[in-house]
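To whoever is covering the structure queue this week,

Two jobs came back overnight. Logging them here so there's a record in the thread.

Job A:
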Amino acid sequence: MVYFHGMKIGINASFIRKSSTGIGQVTVNFLQELFKQKSKHTFILYLEEDLPSDFKLPENFEKRVFLPFWRRDDLVRKIWWERYLLPKKVLADNCDVFFSLYQSATILPKSVQHIMLVHDIIPNVFPEYLNNSRKKLYWELIEQAMIEADKIIANSVRTEKDLIYKLKIEPKKIHVEYLDVDEIYKKEISIQKEGAVLAKYNLSPGYIYNGGGLELRKNTEDVIRAYNFLLEKNRRDHTLPNFPKLVISGKLMPGNSLAFDAEELIKELNLTPEVRLLGFVPQDDLPSLYKNASMFVFPSHYEGFGLPILEAMNQGTPVVTAKKSSLPEVGGDSVLYCDPYNFRDTAMAMKNILTNNELREALKRRGQERAKKFSWEKFTLSFLNIIE
């Protein structure tokens, strides 16, 4: 299909209403970079809720805000919006290209070139996520839509391989393009801001930090067990006179069978005085939490990309992470790796950072340098090249 100047490009930007999520951050940062490109094309944003008041659209951007009469924010509405209402709007607007900013259930006729950004295929790797009939139906629709899409942008080589081997998608239609973090993690933090955040959570610098969610696959259990192992060893050996606290952020949603109950394990191991559970932390506070940590520990079993370790690297925080899935693509040689199925291995990596100042400084420097390789400009220009 050959295009000339002035295409009409539709974008599913619905996650802008959930800007604190990973896909929400991708949506916001991609659009803000796209605004800067002064493109010759016309862009139409398809939304479930109106844009925030401070989100100003350039002249070549339009928006469509619509919902079915079923207004409850659940899978019924999601399927209805993505699978039925959205394609009708895209066709009515005569879009040449449509970009889904996440793996969705949308299928379009071949008159519209459909490009889909796929972040991960977690339900294929962990079937336990499909624990009811609605989730199973929705994922079946997403799989069908990924197979039907004209082109796929995978956010890592790991995701690309999963698409090829688990869904049998043709390699020639997949493009790997790395994401970046939200701009908030790249900005200098004032001493006043850092102090206010530490005071808010009653923290002193130098703690060990774990964040990114309390889903079982995120493996916070490994972090707690590794910390307990190190703490007990330090009580015997007295290697570190002021052993750091462990700080964990993330909210445990009631009734979620796929979430890890960190508080229960902390009580079981008698770690309550040593471990701080912060619950949900707003994004505005996260850069300061990363920056004041002695390290960020993230031994996740599976990530489509791994935004949390890139957030930490931007702040110069040494990282311990799993040598699995996409995480080595992000961390490269600027982080320490551990076996996420062996908490003693995680503990040894943590101990190396705690006891070796030179290593800690090297990881800080290498992490910040590597973080510069990722940019929203690269991602956005790659998208524009793919459609042209």
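Job B:
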Amino acid sequence: MWHRSGSRLSGFANQTPAKILVIRLSAIGDILLATPLLRCLRRRFPHAQIDFVVKSAFADLLRHHPALNHLYEVEPSAGRAGLRALGERLRLQHYDVVVDIHKNFRSAYLTRAARPGMVLRHRKYLVRRWLFVQFKWNLLRKIAPIRRRYIEAAGALGVEDDGGKLEIFLAAEDEDAASAVLRQRGWDGKAPLVALAPGAGFFTKRWPAEYFVEVARELVRRGMAVVLLGGGQDRDLTEEIRRNISAGAYPLAGDTSLLVTAAILKRCRALIANDSGLMHMAEAVGIPLVAIFGSTTKELGFFPQQATSQVIENASLHCRPCSHLGRSRCPKGHFLCMRGITPMEVIAAAEDVGALAQGNGERVSG
């Protein structure tokens, strides 16, 4: 019988849940970081029903995931009534386990509404994180990155990390659409593609646009074609970068779905990006990555993990991190965490990960 022993978990590693619900509502990076958990859950429980709750804006990231039986979508515009209705649907499923890897008001509400036999959550280390950001007392050195913490949340079920990468699964129509949109924008299929993602959720995570312009110019000079990616909020930024390049740059920010964006990334030699969801998407599709980090650091858990990824940061600054998420302005006024990173450093990193390797046509990774 599925049971809990007071507030402590006991003996669950030897039991087999029939129904498991995972909750992670947003955003792009966090959802992709949850995909190793889904793979490991499916490996541990090949016959279980494994479902996922996510905001509708990000549901496509898991639309074709083979580990999932059902995807529940939260539409924020539906408000409390929509959340209540979803909670009632979840309750009817009689889940044995809910793995809440979001830990906010909505996820807590849905977890309670589902009335599962067992609730598992990852640790956020809020006090240690606060001490690190506010006083630079680094008690996070031995803490696992977010990807592993999500898996460790299910450790009571006997779920173990397989060491594998992030994943995203595409349909044939996404692949076809990616090739079509590139050709519609004027790419002839000959120049190797390199993607740039100059956006990020906060100012202190954004490398200056003029630096991206210099990198893009150098890439074009070396015979590459530059794809400028991002969300709708990045459209003006990518258009500004394109205007400062004579030719060879294709701005697509806000013009393609998440899955078509992923399919475009698969065709690129590499991605050069700020700390953003597209950074994690590059690892999920299996291409080399150059990630530029400003106000945040490795200890906060979001650094890329693959051998083909390289991080560029101004590690000597004692004011980092100034936030665990990012800020609307540099609190010191100098913004050296980003302005201190030169375009040639980024070009050199791109060379190291193979972004500037010669060869024509689309790159299609496995």
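Note for Job B: The longest strand covers residues 49-55.

Please reply-all if you pick these up so we don't duplicate work.
Q.
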